[in-house]
C-alpha cells in the first residue's frame, strides 16, 4: 500500500464569524493501522500446514494437466453424440482442474504465506535516483526471501511444475492438429444432392408432402444409409445439412425462385438452412402469423415468405434455401444442394 507523505503542517477546521466554514489545505496523515499478524506468522505448525495445502493445490493442477493430455489422446470423438460429449467433458474438466489448482494455489499462498506488511512509499519522478533504485531492488530481493521460496523447495517445485505443465492443455491439441484435414473446399457442399429425401430429425423417417399441413414446421436432415449414420463423419456432415421445413399457403410466398427462374418450393413448402448467417446459431423459432423465423442468440429475424430475407438483427444475408420437390412416391426430395455455402462466413464470400 502506498501513501503520500505530507511534509506540511495541517490547518484545523475553523468556523468563521459569518457562519461559513474554512477547510484545511492538507489533512493529517493518519498513518497505517496496527499490523495484525496471521496465525501462520506466529505458529510454525500453521505455516507448515498452509504450505502443504498450497503444494496440494499445485499438485492437483499438475494432475489436471496430465489428465487433460491423456483424455485428449485416449478418448477421441468417435462421430457419435455421446462420444463427442464425453471427450468434451473430460477435456473441460481436466483444464478446469489444472487452471483452478493454479489459481487457488497462488491465492492461498499469497494470503497465508507471503508477506502482508504494509509499506509507505513517497511519490517521485518517473526516473528514481540510483539510491532509490537500489532500495527497490533490495525490496524485491527481500520479498523473494520473505515469500519462503528459498527455504521451501517442495513448494517451489510444485508451483514451477504446475506453471510449466499447464500450457500443455492448450499446446498438445494445437500441435497435434498440424497436418490434419485442411481442405476448406469441403465446406462448399453438404450431404444434400439431387434426389436425396428429406427426413425428420432425429428419427430419420422420410417426409411426404401430404404429411404437412399449412403452418407445419419440421426439423429436417438428409435421408442417408445406415453406413453413413454409423460413420465418424455423420455428426459433422449432419451439422452442416440441418434444415427447417415450413409449409405456407402458396399465395403467401413472395419469393420462391432461383436466379435462373426455377421454382425451389413445392405447394407452399419451403426449406431453409437452420444455420444463422450471423454467427451460426440454430435458427428454429417460427412465428406462423408473420412467417418470421427468429434466431434465439442475437434476435436476427428472417422472412420465410420472402426468401428468408433479413428483416431485423445483425445478420446481413438471407438463409440459404434448399430447393425441393417430390418424387414419384410423394416424398419430399432435394433438387440439388444449397445454392451457396451455409453458415456465417466463407473464405470466398465478400459479406
Automatic annotation (TrEMBL):
Residues 240-333 form the Rieske domain. It comes from the Bacteria. Residues 1-22 have a biased composition (Polar residues). Iron-sulfur subunit of the cytochrome bc1 complex, an essential component of the respiratory electron transport chain required for ATP synthesis. The bc1 complex catalyzes the oxidation of menaquinol and the reduction of cytochrome c in the respiratory chain. The bc1 complex operates through a Q-cycle mechanism that couples electron transfer to generation of the proton gradient that drives ATP synthesis. This is Cytochrome bc1 complex Rieske iron-sulfur subunit. Keywords: 2Fe-2S, Cell membrane, Disulfide bond, Electron transport, Iron, Iron-sulfur, Membrane, Metal-binding, Oxidoreductase, Respiratory chain, Transmembrane, Transmembrane helix, Transport. It holds the Pfam family Rieske. InterPro entries: QcrA_N (IPR045603), Rieske_2Fe-2S (IPR017941), Rieske_2Fe-2S_sf (IPR036922), Rieske_Fe-S_prot (IPR014349), Rieske_Fe-S_prot_C (IPR005805). Belongs to the Rieske iron-sulfur protein family. Residues 23-38 have a biased composition (Basic and acidic residues). Residues 1-38 are annotated as: Disordered. It is a multi-pass membrane protein. The chain crosses the membrane at residues 53-74, 86-107. Its main location: membrane. One of its GO terms (cellular component) is plasma membrane. One of its GO terms (molecular function) is 2 iron, 2 sulfur cluster binding. It is found in: Cell membrane. SUPFAM superfamilies: ISP domain. Its cofactor is [2Fe-2S] cluster. It comes from Isoptericola variabilis (strain 225).
